[in-house]
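BUG-281 | component: ligand-complex export | severity: low

The export step for magnesium ion jobs runs without errors, but we want the raw record kept on the ticket for reference. Input record follows.
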Amino acid sequence: MQTSLIAGAVVLGLALPAMAQDGPAPDDLMNATVWMETSVEYKATVLQLFKQAQTQLDAALADPEWSAVPDKQPDNYADLPVAIVTDLDETMLDNGNYEASLIARGTSYNSAEWTDYVNSKTSSAVYGALDFLKYADSKGVKIFYVSNRKAPEVEGSRENMEALGFPMGGNVDTLLFRGVQEDWGSAKENRIAYVAKDYRVVMLMGDNLGDFSDAASGTLAERDAFLESSKDHWGHDWIMFPNPEYGSWEEAAFGGDWSKSPEERRAAKIDALEPWEPSAE
Ligand SMILES: [Mg+2]
């Protein structure tokens, strides 16, 4: 029935786009969000990562020399209490309902609306995150949440996380958000260093290269070079989570230039690909 209607519309020269008005327009965010929100493949992937993180955490606790950030630790770091530094969004907190809302409304991220979203306290926990965090907490490991959520989003985040059952650090402030201190910008290494002064940081966890290194803001080639130089960390004391929805990988593909229009950014991303070309017949 639908096919014959479309065929009839074509024959009559009617405007087919009108038939698409029942739902949102095609959106580059859709497949990534459907994968992260509905697929067993995503859940199994992150479950594997949390299992690996737990194994590595046990090894780290048994080895006083173990550090994920040896360049940021003081000389006596083996004597310090143990901590993990983790990102929040799409590492421990799942904001798929926000991404779904963007798709449903045909709009894109904006900072003010994001604050409203955070303060709605409707993020959920990434699959497997709470089991891992509670395990770490049970071993006396302090968990620092180094997030680029902003200072006005601290309290909403705290209430959301407490309701979900996240370990919150007791009398230590473990929500180290962007802008809470003057020099805490979007680059995270100085916040990681802030933790590493007083704790043996045994693991970094994130979904974005920037959760591990300020090299995230480099070009595609610079980011690849950083990967080559950091191979020993990955899967050992740095654990990367998948996020095909957004991240520094996307910015790198269009040169980090947000003044470009959505169409220009999309064209740059396509240009970053190296397509196979079928041989001419
Ligand atoms: Mg994140």
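Assignee comment: Attached the raw record above. The longest strand covers residues 142-150.
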